[in-house]
Amino acid sequence: MTTYEVSTVPSESLVRLTNVIYGLHAVSLVLGAFGAATVVGSFLLGWPSIIAVVINYVKRDDVRGTYLDSHFSWQIRTFWYALLWVVVATLISLPLVLVLVGFITWPVMMFALGVWAIYRIARGWIALRDGRPMPV
Fold it and tell me: Rounded to two decimals, what is the model's pTM?
């Protein structure tokens, strides 16, 4: 794990914005956990997470040189890796549906991916609360 060198202290408004972004991701996860969609489906396709990722890209230059840059990278990577793993899980499970195993493997993989997304958002948000950068 590499350390993240902080060159400037971020403004309080950028820290609040980063909290809002984690909150938007958390709302998507909660909607997936208690709604009709899957956790990961809601995380990737829910408006709160999509808005959060757009904000990440728009405001990324504003956090450069601060520990918040590591949080923005963490949030962006969480979103795109989740999408990548959904595609991989689907490509693995789809052919297995022909032998009925895919009906079991896909939900298990989606559940594991949902737990992973919850872990990533919770870990990042806790580190932000403590004023710590995320590993790069």
Answer: 0.86
